[in-house]
Specification:
Length: about 325
């Protein structure tokens, strides 16, 4: 038997699964469903809170009084961590890539409201030294008798991955209630933890789902490695091994577009199309690219073997507001 770590109860679960009737009809292919993980909460909306239910249980059992984590200036993960920390009476230190803007907006505005202490670093420092920088901050706090717990980027490590292990259990239960079998579970991939958790559960429960990720940064090869690393770390918590190899991982590359967090007109047009068609708003950094990629692959006839597809809406809504200027040409 596998040992599943303990968790806190912080997210609004289970999240709904909705069928997108009009989009499915318009594409004339598979039935497309969406799991509304953008509705896991308000302050904690999105996929990160599922991971943090496990991560923060571990942090608290280790006696932490402060959380340290890192991300981009509009990081959903950092905002979710700051919100959850405030709820739990913990302090937060964020290592953010970039420079302090004149006025904070989107996720950064929320970080400020939750009282997060922000440590700005350059893109080079972030890329090469973010973990050392977080360790340095932890040591500084230790000198003041404070106990910090470091969460890696995106909470994408072994413990965090259990958030989507349990999301997969939730999906299996919902399939029974709905009388539907999803052939594929699809999501945007940013640091790989969500994908890793879903694949871990798919292997443990031996279901037939294809787990398909669309990377929004780097490339497929990078994520094969990153996901395998998360899975190896998750196995340490399981205290048993699960047979997963790199060829079980399916990442569809080709939809990063202009680069991480930089949108293209066709992606923004798709965000507007889905909003008008189904009343669902995607974010420009993750779900806008991932869902756009999914519909393009369907149009190209590359997913014809799939009848029922479940896309996980992993949230990110606050990240659309700082990009208002980019959407200006879509105004009537
Ligand atoms: C972080 C994030 C993702 C990617 O999840 P990973 O586990 O980092 O791969 C997808 N969508 C949104 C909105 C996110 O914030």
């Amino acid at each position: 038997m596998h040992n599943i770590p303990k968790r806190l109860n912080l997210a609004n679960l289970p999240t709904k699964i909705e069928k997108l009737h009009r989009l499915s009809e318009k594409l004339g292919g598979p039935n497309i469903y969406v799991k509304r993980d953008d509705q896991t909460g308000t302050e904690v909306a999105g996929n990160k809170i599922r991971k943090l239910e496990y991560t923060l249980h571990e942090a608290i059992s280790q006696g932490a009084d402060t959380l340290i984590t890192c991300g981009g200036i509009q990081s959903n993960h950092c905002r979710t961590t700051a919100a959850a920390a405030a709820k739990l009476g913990l302090k937060t230190k964020l290592v953010l890539r970039g420079q302090q803007p004149a006025a904070p907006d989107g996720n950064l505005l929320l970080d400020v409201l939750f009282g997060a202490d922000i440590h700005w670093v350059t893109p080079e420092e972030y890329r090469n030294r973010r973990n050392d920088i977080m360790t340095g901050l932890k040591e500084e706090l230790a000198q003041q008798e404070r106990h910090a717990y470091i969460i890696p980027e995106g909470a994408s490590n072994g413990i965090g991955a259990f958030g989507y292990y349990s999301a997969m259990e939730e999906i299996i239960q919902q399939e029974k209630e709905m009388g539907v079998q999803f052939d594929a579970v699809v999501m945007a991939v940013g640091s790989g933890g969500t994908y890793a958790g879903l694949l871990l559960a798919q292997k443990i429960f031996k279901t037939s789902h294809e787990i398909i990720g669309f990377n929004v940064s780097n490339d497929a090869e990078y994520f094969h490695r990153a996901i395998m690393k998360v899975l190896e770390d998750a196995e340490k918590h399981l205290e048993s091994s699960v047979e997963i190899c790199s060829k079980d991982i399916r990442i569809i590359d080709g939809y990063v577009g202009l680069g991480y967090a930089i949108g293209r007109p066709e992606e923004r047009a798709f965000i507007k199309e889905l909003a008008m068609l189904e009343g669902i708003v995607l974010d420009p950094v993750y779900t806008g690219k991932g869902f756009y990629g999914l519909t393009e692959e369907i149009k190209k006839g590359r997913l014809e073997h799939l009848n029922n597809i479940l896309f996980i809406h992993t949230g990110g809504l606050y990240g659309i507001f700082p990009q208002g200027k980019e959407f200006a040409n879509l105004l009537p």
